[in-house]
What does this fold into?
Amino acid sequence: MNVRQTVRNARAFGFALLACATLSGCLSAKMYVDPKLPVVSKADMPVVPQPRPVQVLFEFRTKGNANARATSEIRPRVLAVAEQSGLFSSVTDTAGATDPGILKIVINNVPMDNAAAKGFGTGLTFGLAGSMVTDGYVCDASYTYNGHTTETTVKHAIYTTIGNHAAPQGLTPLQPADAVHQVMDQLTWNALKQLADQQAFQ
Amino acid sequence: MSIMRMALVSSALLLLAGCISAPPPKYQAGVSNTEVLMQSTRSDLKVGNFDAAPGVENTHLSVRGSSLTGGSDGTFSAYLREALITELKTAGKYDPSGDTSISGTLTRNQLDSAIKTGTADVGARFIVTRNGATLYDKSLSAHHEWDSSFIGAIAIPAAMQNYATAVQKLLGKLFSDPEFVKATETSATEGK
It folds into this structure.
């Protein structure tokens, strides 16, 4: 191996290291929660004179297909919101309660654009050509008691920027888990509020 | 030198490939399955033995060099059994000491994480018995498709994830099968 070749190899190694370091920074994803959906909390819920026990049936879907991993992760948050709402005397996800109402919540993740294709293009340019993708979330909720069913639908969205792309105006970046949890919680709170507004729990 | 470089690159790629062996995600009851099962006339069920038919892959399914393994004991028949128990428990239709029992044999178990569309095919023969009498004996199968990817890091987890969905679909077919409904009606099982 001559000197020229050694220098060439060292330069190639250095470039590879630099590329790796640059890639890790440029391709970081940042998430932003859509601000349109009202922030709802327990204070916004009506007082139910005689709360009943409820069994929550929850499923998270990706493009309409059941997503077991996400269902498992999000279900405790949905149950927690139902408990905190004060609308029910007890909350469970399995059968067993006496004369329970059935609260069905299905959240479907609907990509609004081709995230994989955009991310691929961003990767090819080492993040210089940044991209933004939008994940839509549609929450179909229903409450059934004594043969009567009340239904509602709530929509939300998360914007994800990849690489060198400007943030959506006025929005604060969140860690991915925080953004997803915030959206799931708010979908559930809003769904319960809308069902309560329709007198579902009276 | 170029051969040495190629060897280094090949080694790096092999390391990066990171072949994994993992079970499907913990089974979650399907909302529509629960709703069907909650229909009041269904009797509670005990879940018996589940195994696999000869020639049906019961421990490993290949996913682009990685491998999907089975349920708690490493078999897919156990995964199916545990999935059934999860569904019955969620709907309040599980009774481990009940008179009516359901058992099964895995008859089909395939997973393909192709570049464009991933597919899973799961089939089983289900048998419902009470006091030695067979109330239901039928083979069912479910086919499930999803958007796959050229990129393994996306395609492999998607395949593992969607295997669970295929099992959920298979159980959905069982629960909504009119013959199964008839066999597990309270009146049908009480009269035997």
About this structure: The radius of gyration of chain A is 23 Å. The longest strand of chain A covers residues 131-145.
